[in-house]
Amino acid sequence: MKIEISHGAGGKKMDALIKNHVMKYFRTGKAEVGLDALDDAAVIDGIVFTTDSHTVKPLFFPGGDIGSLSVSGTVNDIAVVGAKPLAISSAFIIEEGFSMDDFEKILRSMKETADKAGVEIVTGDTKVVEKNSLDGMIINTSGIGIKSEELEHNFETVNRYRKMETPWLLDSNLREGDRIILSGYIGDHGIAILSSREGYDFHVDIKSDVAPVNKLVERALKVGGVVAAKDPTRGGISNALNEWAEKSKIGILVDENSIPVRDGVRAACEMLGIDVYSIGNEGKVLFGVVGEKAEEILEEIRKDPLGKDAEIIGEVSKEYGKKVILRTGIGGKRILSKPVGDPVPRIC
Predict the structure, then answer these.
(1) Within 13 Å, how many C-alpha atoms sit on residue 297's CB side?
(2) CA–CA separation, 88 and 72 (whole Å)
(3) How far is 164 from 174, CA to CA, in rounded Å?
(4) pLDDT tens digits for 144-202?
(5) Of 94, 113, 165, 287, which shows the fewest CB atoms inside 10 Å?
(6) Could you give the number of structural domains in the chain?
(7) Is residue 64 part of a domain?
(8) Residues with Cβ < 8 Å from 303, sequence gap 6 or more?
(9) Residue 148 lies in a domain
(10) What's the whole-model pTM score?
């Protein structure tokens, strides 16, 4: 057996790689939230920690570049467990002969994105490898965060409706009656990458949604009532929702008519035979919230530019076991399965 591209693209094959190979060596009982949880970040001694490597192709794409992507990706993984991002590291692996002007553009983009998120890049590493070793450069970013006052307030609100067993926003927190909120249009990032990489002309202006979402998450926490949050990157909302259902041991019903998809993205997916629900995003958040606070949280996050197109897209129900069910546009129902891998590789 050899490792394939799909093993790193989110979905079933990456799950199997991590659970069958990685976790048998790196299981730990010391962390408050450890590797076993397979959440977006770990928690140890009160510090939230995450890391990510970025191999996007091309390095520059409509709406962003590898620099904005690397900072946003790490900030977002900290934010969706409910933490306040503090600082990140940045390690560059650069191919010999890479343009210094392009390197400057990427550094400038990282700085602007970090400023927008309110974090600092405080440490890192640089390596240069032989020409033709990789496609220009790879960036690894790691980040740390801490519990915020907003998170404490959030769980005080949650506990008015039901008892929480954890002080963090984890994939395993969903319960009967919770509602699912999506912060905006899906599929933009994956289609923007694909059109830029392959030269497809979809006759529409599709840009990546790449952005740090920590301020958006903070808005929701200030209202209170959030039990889980996730940025649906590799594998899209299909993968994210299935992770929630699997870890929370409960079903989820989502309404196709409520899921925001741009006409151009939908047309591109139909043209290419790609499932829009399995395409990665880089500036969106799925929120699991107690039903009693759903409308209030929706109203608040719509005040943020990143959440202006947010919708309540579904609800949590024991009726569907541990499956994710999609109510289709014509009124039928089908299982929304976890994808094998992201249909558009090398997007993050």
Answers:
(1) 32
(2) 11
(3) 10
(4) 999 999 999 999 999 999 999 899 999 999 999 999 999 999 999 999 999 888 877 77
(5) 165
(6) 1
(7) yes
(8) 219
(9) yes
(10) 0.96
